[in-house]
Amino acid sequence: MKYNFDKKVDRIKNNSAKWNEMGKNFGHNDLLPMWIADMDFETAPEILEEMKNKLDQKIFGYVSRPDSYYQSAIEWSKKRYNYDIDFSSIIHSPGVIPTISIVLKNFVKDTDKIMIQTPVYPPFAGTVKNSDKILVENELVQDSDGNWKIDFEDFEAKAKDDNLNWFILCNPHNPVGRVWKREELQKMADICLKYNIRVISDEIWRDLVYKGHEFTAFASLSKEVEDITITCFSATKTFNLAGLQASFAVFPRKEELELFDAKLGALDIKRNNPFSLVAMEAAFSKGEEWLNELLEYLEGNVDFVIDYVQKNIPKVKIIKPEGTYLVWFDFSELNLSNKDISKALIEEGKVALNDGTSFGNTSSGFFRMNIACPRYMVQDAITRVEKVVKSL
Ligand SMILES: Cc1ncc(COP(=O)(O)O)c(C=O)c1O
């Protein structure tokens, strides 16, 4: 490999949320952090080089965005996903969640209901509640082999409600790791078209997809699907740049793009910062080789965890994620509350995993492990989990 993902990185000095906020979130600082979704890998050297060039300019005033900035994101989307984005429909946003928040606050009627598919990234429910809108959950279900599926009957039953006018899609899905197949997306799209439902498609994980699976952009299904969709993506998750706070939103309806732009303007958050400006473009124009190696390394981590759990902790069930670097652990065979499992993981195992119950009511028994770190950390984490499970 050209890039070294085994390299140990000291993130305490990095003032990272992942390493420095465990006391606040878990009551202890001395845990192995396998929670919040960023990676313990240095970003690609090709990105660092552009950031160093920016630093060398020694001036960090307001920046102006060159066309090449959006062009790099458009070309990446076309090349990797055959997703055509019109230059006039793409806009910067400080983050995917800020985009969703702004849309919900300004585009959605107070009486509108908004559907999400739980378990899902907690800020989805959070932004709906914070914008005083009504939340509707289409719960994902597991088949007899444990694979995560969409309950289409329930999806359509909920879609029929005249007040259900918005759906927030997570593709690839955090936390269950599904990369929704074209047919599944088309089935959701058909229902949304039939009942006049608008879609916010959060595709922030789209680059992190494992061999044998293919990401399809929701808006790329057809022109009519594109018209009902607002797409969100970024290079931040892919290249470990989340602290730079930048993302893209695609609004095919001109009046909505203009309204969104005006709302960003009112908050004075229209511009990139000098580092996100160069980092995002470098990621999309020079980061592909790094990403391909990263994916190989991450899949090695996933396979390691699955193999270890199957051989040594059979009470714990895991379905291999198709994408993301998140592994969704099912501890329900232990017949214990999440509170008790959490206490044991923290106090005995000294390992920080996300408690599944924060992703939705149905996730009792589940915990999420972030495996985007050097393999020695993953090995350490899984043996800590093993010790805890065997002691319970
Ligand atoms: C599905 C999903 N959307 C959005 C985000 C965060 O995006 P941003 O930092 O751009 O708001 C995350 C972070 O983990 C995520 O998992």
Order the strands across the largest sheet as they lie in space. Answer: 2-10-9-8-7-3-4
Structural class of the helix and strand makeup?
A: alpha/beta
- The total of beta strands comes to 15
The CATH architecture assignment of the largest domain turns out to be 3-Layer(aba) Sandwich
Q: Round the mean pLDDT to the nearest integer and report it.
A: 97
From the spread of the alpha carbons, the general shape counts as globular
CATH topology-level name of the largest domain: Aspartate Aminotransferase, domain 2
Characterize the biggest β-sheet: 7 strands, mixed
The separation of the N and C termini measures 40 Å
CATH class of the largest domain: Alpha Beta
Helix percent reads 40-55%
Task: Compute the number of helices.
Answer: 15
CA gyration radius, whole angstroms: 21 Å
How many domains, in number, for the residues?
2
Summarize this structure as a short list of keywords or feature phrases.
Aspartate Aminotransferase, domain 2, 392 residues, 14% strand, alpha/beta, binds pyridoxal-5'-phosphate, Aspartate Aminotransferase, domain 1, pyridoxal phosphate
Write the layout of secondary structure elements.
Layout: H1 17-20, H2 22-26, E1 32-33, H3 45-57, H4 67-81, E2 90-93, H5 96-107, E3 113-116, H6 123-130, E4 134-137, E5 141-142, E6 148-149, H7 152-159, E7 164-170, H8 182-194, E8 198-202, H9 223-228, E9 229-233, H10 236-239, E10 247-250, H11 254-267, H12 274-286, H13 288-312, E11 317-318, E12 326-330, H14 338-349, E13 351-352, E14 354-355, E15 366-370, H15 375-391
Parallel strand pairs: 1-13, 3-4, 3-7, 7-8, 8-9
Antiparallel strand pairs: 2-10, 5-6, 9-10, 11-12, 12-15, 14-15
Helix pairs in contact: 3-12, 4-12, 5-6, 5-11, 7-8, 13-15, 14-15
Bound molecules: pyridoxal-5'-phosphate.
GO molecular function: cysteine-S-conjugate beta-lyase activity; pyridoxal phosphate binding; transaminase activity
Organism: Romboutsia maritimum
Family: Belongs to the class-II pyridoxal-phosphate-dependent aminotransferase family. MalY/PatB cystathionine beta-lyase subfamily.
